[in-house]
Specification:
CATH architecture of one domain: Orthogonal Bundle
Strand content: 5-15%
Shape: elongated
Low-confidence stretches: 1-61, 74-79
Largest sheet: 5 strands, mixed
Order of helices and strands: HEEHHEEHE
Structural class: alpha+beta
CATH topology of one domain: Helix Hairpins
CATH superfamily of one domain: Stage III sporulation protein AH-like
């Protein structure tokens, strides 16, 4: 029995089914892929300085306008950071709930008196696979965070690993670091790993 985790209810729906290798420029929902160079936070709102009659007033108004824009940009960045924190927290929560439900289902098989010993053995193996997968994800996420990333979530489906890191732009060296960590922890080829940023 295979274990797959592909569907999530928020903006990240079908991340695994829509993921593409890191060498391709594309967007997945609201996740930016590695090769994307656009900024995460954009401020489309602008403040217009009121008309003034003299040069001194114009300079003062431009300074006030600049201060207002700086404050507005700061608020936008804080909102974006909060949204990103929620994004990663929600993905991890949904992933962990999926693990828990699957373990619970297999545990019921193990505890059942009407299920054959062969089926129970398979259920025990599946529980062990889930536990191993969870341990690999947790370890890899912690190691990636130690490389300076604010947050990271790892998803897995059909032996494909999707890594989403919280950073505006990923450098080639950062991509290589993540690939090395994930390939070692999951004992998988780099070709099975998709890395994206948000």
């Amino acid at each position: 029995m295979g274990i797959g985790y592909a569907n999530f209810s928020n903006n990240s729906s079908n991340i695994m089914s829509n993921s593409v290798p890191t060498s391709v420029t594309n967007n997945i929902g609201d996740v930016q892929l590695v090769s994307s160079s656009s900024a995460i936070v954009e401020n489309d709102e602008s403040l217009e300085a009121p008309l003034v009659e003299n040069t001194v007033g114009l300079v003062e108004n431009e300074n006030v306008n600049q201060n207002n824009e700086n404050l507005q940009n700061s608020e936008t960045v804080q909102t974006s950071n909060s949204d990103n924190s929620n994004y990663f927290a929600e993905l991890k929560m949904q992933r962990n709930e999926m693990f828990s439900k699957n373990i619970e289902t297999y545990q019921k098989i193990v505890d059942s008196e009407t299920i054959s010993s062969e089926q129970k053995s398979i259920a025990v193996q599946e529980i062990e696979k889930i536990n191993n997968l969870q341990n690999s994800m947790k370890t890899a996420e912690e190691l990636i965070k130690l490389k300076g990333f604010e947050d990271v979530v790892i998803l897995s489906s059909n032996e494909k690993i999707s890594v989403i890191v919280r950073i505006a732009v990923l450098s080639d060296s950062q991509v290589a670091q993540i690939q090395n960590i994930v390939s070692k922890e999951f004992n998988t080829e780099i070709s099975n790993i998709t890395i994206s940023n948000k």
